[in-house]
Model the fold of this input.
Amino acid sequence: MVEVVKQGGPVVGRLVVVGLGLIGGSFAKGLRESGLCREVVGVDLDPQSRKLAVELGVVDRCEEDLALACVGADVIQLAVPILAMEKLLARLAQLDLGPAVLTDVGSAKGNVVRAAREALGAQLPRFVPGHPIAGSEQSGVEASNAALFRRHKVILTPLAGTDPAALGLVDRLWRALDADVEHMQVERHDEVLAATSHLPHLLAFGLVDSLAKRNENLDIFRYAAGGFRDFTRIAGSDPVMWHDIFLANREAVLRTLDTFRSDLDALRDAVDAGDGHQLLGVFTRARVAREHFSKILARRAYVDAMNSNDLIFLAQPGGRLSGRIRVPGDKSISHRSIMLGSLAEGTTEVEGFLEGEDALATLQAFRDMGVVIEGPHHGRVTIHGVGLNGLKPPPGPIYLGNSGTSMRLLSGLLAAQPFDTVLTGDASLSKRPMNRVANPLREMGAVIETAPKGAHR
Done:
C-alpha cells in the first residue's frame, strides 16, 4: 500500500521497474537513492543486466518473472521498447495488481494509450502515461545515472479518467529526481515530439546513411568538421529503439516530415534559382530563432537589465581630451528605421542602430512578419523591405520582451494590416496599461482586445 511513513520518508512501499535500460535503470537508481521507496525491484529478461543492476546499486533485487516481481507492487514503471508495450500490458492485465499505479516512459503516447485502453479495462484510471525527455548515446543498465533527469522535462499525459491520486504520485516521483514535470494531452505530445525529437533523429540517421553510401564516403567523413559531428551525433542512438518510435508515432512524424519536406523543397528551389533573398531570409531567421524562443519561454527581456547596485562609478577630474567620438544610436530613430525600412520598397541601410531592448524587440517582430533583416552588427542593419502591404501574418504571438515602445508603436501599425496579431511580452510589460493606445485606435475602427483594466495581453 502507498503510504507516507514520516515527513521526508518513503512514500512508496515497492517500486517495480520493468526494463532496465538507460531510462528504466536511471529511474530506478534515482528513486532508490532518494529514499522515497522502501524497495526497488527490477525486471529484465537479460541475466547479465539483472546481475549488474544489483551489483551497481540500481535496484535492491531483480527478477526474471514479471508476476513474481509485481507481487505487492505500489508503482510499476514500464520502461520497455514501445512495440513491446502492447504485450507487456496484456500480461499485466492478467495479474492481480490491486491498487498499483502503472506508468511508462515511451516517447510516443498515442500508441501506448491505445494499447492500455484495450488491455487494462478497470485498471486504466491507475495508468499514468509519461515520457522523460532525457537520454544519451549510452545504453544498458550499466549506463544508469541517478541524475539523468535533473533539469530535464518529463511530460505526463493523463487521460480524462486518470485517478488524480495516481497522477499526483507519479508527478511526485519524477520531481524527486529533480525533473521539470509538465502535463499535456496525448495528441499534443506526439505532435510536439515528432517535430522536436523524432524528426531531428530521422534527419541525422538519413544524412549519415546517405553520405556513407556514396563512393567518396571516406573523404566526406575525413574532412567532416565540428558542425557535421554535432548535427549527426544523435545518429549514434539505439537503432532498434528509434525503429520502434517511428513506427509507433508514424502519423505525427509523417505530418511533420511533410511540412519539413515542403520547406526543404523551397530551399532547393531557392538554391536552384539563385534566389539569395529567400536563402538570406531563412538563414537570418534561423540564426536568432533559438535565442528568441528561449526568451519567450523564460518570459525575459531581449536585453537583461543591469542592476544599478552592482556597479559604482567614481569620476575624477582629468586633463584635456580631444578627438572625435561616436555616441550611441537613438532609440526612437532605431525603432522607426526598422518600421519604415520594412514597409518601404527595396533595401534600407541603417548605421548607428541602437542594439538595446526596445529596438531589438521591434526588429524581431518584423522578422516574424516575413521581413529579411541582416544584423545588427556593430550598429549596422540591412532591411529588405516588403512594401506597404507586404507583411505576412506571424506564425504566433509577437513577443516584445519588456519593450513598451514596441508594443505601442506596433499596435498602431498592425491595426491597419489585413491579418490579426497577438502582441505579448514579459511579466513587467504584461502589467502595463494600454488603453491610451487601444482606445484611439478603436475609435478609428480597429478591433483590439486587452486584458482587464486595459493591460496588454
Remarks:
- The longest strand covers residues 12-18.
